[in-house]
Each structure stands twice: as structure tokens, then as C-alpha cells.
Amino acid sequence: MPDALDFEQPLLELETRLATLQAQEDSPRLREEITKLEERLERQRQKTYASLTPWQRTQLARHPKRPHARDYIRVLFDDFIELHGDRLYGDDAAIVSGLARFEGQGVVVIGHQKGRDTREKIARNFGMPHPEGYRKALRLMQLAEKFGKPVLTFIDTPGAYPGLGAEERGQAEAIARNLREMAGLRTPIVAVVTGEGGSGGALAIGMGNRVLMLEYAIYSVISPEGCAAILWGDAARAPDAAESMKITAPDLVRLGVIDAIVPEPVGGAHRDWDGAAAHLRAALRSHLGDLASKSGDALVAERYEKFRRMGAFEEASRPRAGL
Amino acid sequence: MAWFKRKTDGSEGKASRVHIAEGLWIKCDSCKEIIYRAEVERAGRVCPKCNYPFRISARERITLLADPGSYEERDTTLETTDPLAFKDTKKYRDRVRAAMQKTRADEAVVCGLARIGGLPAVLCVFEFGFLGGSMGSVVGEKLTRAIELAIDKHVPVVIVSASGGARMQEGILSLMQMAKTSAALQRLGERRLPYVSVLTDPTTGGVTASFAMLGDVIMAEPRALIGFAGPRVIAETIRQPLPEGFQRSEFLLEHGQLDLIVDRRDLKETLRRILAFFADQPSQPG
């Protein structure tokens, strides 16, 4: 299987053997073998996925077969109407956005979109938005606010694109403006990190009243490769950087950055898209339900307090330095 | 991503692009002219030959901008708890301690109340010598408290940025300071209190992508490097040489990203005039 990760190999070998046995003519002895192999596979699965390293989780988060925003949109929503463009410069295909219905309720959906095959990856710039992508997202969020619809965002990006045009057109300003405007948005925002939460490019659609993370998603201030290149001058030490930076969903719960982890099917979302979507549906239903009755003022105040608390510092009794 | 191409291995001490040789004369790194040190210092450390503004410390900046004796520093007691227990070649806590000793600042931003040409304001100034002016939890908290102080006192905010961006050693919590400071500015704006952002060399990464680009007025010193991604990251990504002057103040002005570029020697007076405008004060200093 070409897309298998290193640590998935032993599982896939067992699965292949199991499939071979299952294809044989039925016999009591064969059935016994199959049961034994199934048990072994289950044990191996539990063992592998109970002890994933941060780097292995990073690989899962970036898995080429992992469901992307459009895949979740297709399964979770009815009547999706994609809306394009920032009304200023262009339409950024690295972000998809539009109107949809979630269990009958109108919502505005925004997500990074990475692209599946080579041609689509290039068209979508590997999910790395330009400023126009963020400005489109903001336009849609303001549309949601105007008409009292909740905003759902799906985060899955290596980061905002570092390029000439992006800088010329104000990449930093576009991200900054989204942070400020999301802070004041008088409608519920639920953000879900579904894959890679790459730094400011992720946060720019991530200031939710609730921020959720899929079990094997990652969320970090810089990519493990980028961090390793700076610390050790060697991007190949990314696994060490992934460890040091605390980028996994359980880490982010501990650090108080996310509210909940959305479980994935055994083996990861790429093994079972419908299973992954079902978990996500349940989580969205519950969090949207909690937020539905809150006023605009309450939503803004809660969002402010949520981000206001983030950080890790202590206060000494006297000045540490000073001018 | 990739806001941190600047190594934080002690090279942050060489922030100034001028080599301060011992003695009366120094050499400008921009125009290479030998210049008289006292003349440079009198001019707020701007090269008298080519007008290049050298990088200066937070302390020097505050002396330039705040009326003498007016600066009341705030929140000097905060310390990182090193939430990731981060260690690369050195422990993060040791890096912070070394930066404190070197800069005599408690963190990478100095915040306080000031008068600028007689007008009250909250004035926050980045100390680039402190781990590259990077923003971790303490910087985010200090800025947020400063903005909340401005709301409480009903005064404007001036932030002078000089930063490589978010601080890698505090991981995701550094990223969240972008959200926290931007949210505080949203509140400031709701109260109709002005915020002037002053960008100095260099302002990049998560600082640019949050409060630095959110000013009601955004000004920059000449020739400052200002951008989201660092130039090296961009060059590596697009595999092309970057155009002359890319990501410098003049480039940003031309592309509509800045309101104005101000010579350091005019900075205080320009700030005063802007603050006076928003305060509906007479345009001449009282």
C-alpha cells in the first residue's frame, strides 16, 4: 500500500494476511486461524495507536488520505453552496467557504483545503492561503454575523503562504485583522483543527468560542521541520522538535488551548472517513447546542475571557528588572 | 509558520547594524561612512550621512519619546513558567536570565504610562535585544494589561514593535498571544480609543500578524524590515532572488500597507500631533 506510514506497515501486513485467509474456503480450522489473527491485529492496533509519538501523530495529521474540509462538508452538511472571492483581489482556493445546513440549521462553513492529487494540490497551493483567502473567510464570517448564523471552521494548513504576492498584499494584516474581528464577532464560532494547525495561518480562522481538535491532529507555532532547522540547523530532526513543542491534542488540552478532543476511528480518520465524520458530527452538535442560546454580548465576552487566560507565567513580589 | 529564522543563540545581542567601535568614531553599516559617535547619539542614533536609523534599546526609545520623568513602568514582575520545559542547546530559563542581564529589561517588551509632548498615553516598546523581541506569554500578558490599562485610564496606546515574532520556546502558547493581544485591541477600538503602531527594524512573524498591523495609524521608521514571513523563508520557498527593497518600509508604503514613514528625529513630534488630533487638542504643543 503506497500511502502507508512506517508504523502502519506491520498492521497492514496483518490485514493483508487476514484478507487472504478470509478469501479461502470456509473450514473450522480456518475460522480458528482467522479469529486468532483478528485478535492479534486488534492487540497490535491498540498497542500502536496507544503509544504514538508526536512525530507519528504529525504524519497522521498530514496523511495523504486524510479527509479534508470538502470531504467533511460533503458528509456533515446538506445543501452546501460554495461562495467565492474576497471582493478585493481574487478567490483563494486554499480556503473553501460557503453556506450550508447542519442538521437543518443554517451555518457558515470555512476551511482550509489542501488538495488530493498533484494538480489539485497545486491549484489549492497545498492549503496555504494568501491574504485573499483570509479576507474571503472574514467576509463570510461577517455575513454569518449579519444574519445570525453560527460559523464553523475546519483548520488544516501547513501555514499561511510565505511568498512575494502574499507579502505585497498584506499577509500579516489579513491575519491580524481576522484575529481582531473574530474577537468581536457576535455569533457563535466553533473551530476544529482537523489535520495540521500551522501557526498564524491556522489561528486566522481559529478564534472560536470552542476550539476542538481531532485526536491525531496537531497545532503548533511553527512546523516541526522549521523548528528543527532553527534549533539544530537540521530539518531532519523534526521528530525531536515535534516532541519538544507539545503539539498533540492531549498536550493542547493540558496547556488550556483547546476545549475538547474529537475521537478518531482506530487507525486514524484516513482509515474510515464516515466514522471520523460521525464523531465530528456529534461534537459539533453538542458545542453548537451549548452556544445556541447565548447572546452576542455573552459570546464576545466568553471568547475574550477564553483567550485572555491563555499563557503561562507567574508573578514575583518584586520587579525582576526594569529601566 | 517559519517566523523564527533568526537564531536565538546569542546572536540577538548584535541587534544594532552599526559596529560601535571603542572610541570617538563609529562606522555606519549602511553607508560605511566613518561618523562621529557623539553626533550619532545626539541624533537619536541615526546616521548623519545616510539617515539610517540604528537599532536602539527600549530604554533609548522611551527616552526619545516620553517626556522627561513622565514614564511610569508597569508589570515588571511577570516571569515565564517555561510551560514546555524547553531545552535545545541551552535551557529556555537560562536564555531568559541571560537576556535579562544583557538588556536590563525584565522581558522583550517594556510597558508603562507616559506623556508624549504633554499628552498621556500607554507606551509599550519592544526590546529586540531580549531573545529577538520574541512574544511569549509574558509579552502577550504585558501588552494585554497595558491595553486594558489604557481602557481603564481612557488614554491612547502607542506600541513600538521590534520583534522576530512568536517565541518558539513557548510553543502554541506564544501563538495564542496573537489572539489575546488582538482581542484586547478590539476592545480598545470599541471604546474609541486610538492605537498608534510604530514599526521598527525588524518587525516580522506573529507580531506583524497581530497587534503590529492593527493600528488606527501605522507608521514605520525608514528602511525597517517588516513582513509576515522572513526574507530567507520566502527566498527558499519561491526559489528566486527577492526584489531590491522587498519588505522594507518603503516597499510596504508603496503597497498600501503603511500610513506613513517617519524619520526617528521627527517621531515624537509626529506622535504628539496624531495623539493631539484624536484628543481634539490644539495642534501646537501647549
Layout: helices, strands, pairs:
The complex is a heterodimer of chains A (323) and B (286).
Chain A: H1 9-22, H2 28-50, H3 54-61, H4 69-76, E1 78-82, E2 95-102, E3 105-112, H5 118-123, H6 131-146, E4 151-157, H7 164-168, H8 171-183, E5 189-198, H9 199-203, E6 210-214, E7 218-220, H10 224-232, H11 238-245, H12 249-254, E8 260-262, H13 273-292, H14 296-308, E9 313-315
Parallel strand pairs in A: 3-4, 4-5, 5-6, 5-7, 6-8
Antiparallel strand pairs in A: 1-2, 2-3
Helix pairs in contact in A: 1-2, 3-11, 4-13, 6-8, 10-11
Chain B: E1 25-27, E2 34-36, H1 37-42, H2 58-65, E3 72-74, E4 78-80, H3 92-103, E5 109-116, E6 119-126, H4 137-153, E7 157-163, H5 171-190, E8 195-203, H6 205-208, E9 217-220, H7 231-238, H8 249-254, E10 260-261, H9 264-278
Descriptive account of the structure:
Chain A contains 14 helices and nine strands. In chain A, α6 (131-146) packs parallel to α8 (171-183). Chain A folds into two domains: 10-51; 58-308, 2-enoyl-CoA Hydratase, Chain A, domain 1 (Alpha-Beta Complex). By secondary structure, chain A is of the alpha/beta class. In chain A, strands 1, 2, 3, 4, 5, 6, 7 and 8 form an eight-stranded mixed β-sheet that branches. Chain A starts with 8 loop residues before the first helix and ends in an 8-residue tail after the last strand. The model of chain A has no long low-confidence stretch (mean pLDDT 95). By secondary structure, chain B is α/β, with parallel strands linked by helices. Chain B folds into two domains: 26-55, no CATH class; 57-279, Alpha-Beta Complex (2-enoyl-CoA Hydratase, Chain A, domain 1), CATH 3.90.226. Chain B is 34% helix and 17% strand. In chain B, the strands form two sheets. In chain B, strands 3-5-6-7-8-9-10 form a seven-stranded mixed β-sheet, sandwiched between helices. Chain B has a two-stranded antiparallel ribbon with strand order 1-2. In chain B, α4 (137-153) packs parallel to α5. Chain B is globular. At the A-B interface, α7, α8, α9, α10 and α14 of A face α2, β4, α4, α5 and α6 of B. β9 of chain A pairs antiparallel with β4 (78-80) of chain B, so a sheet runs across the interface.
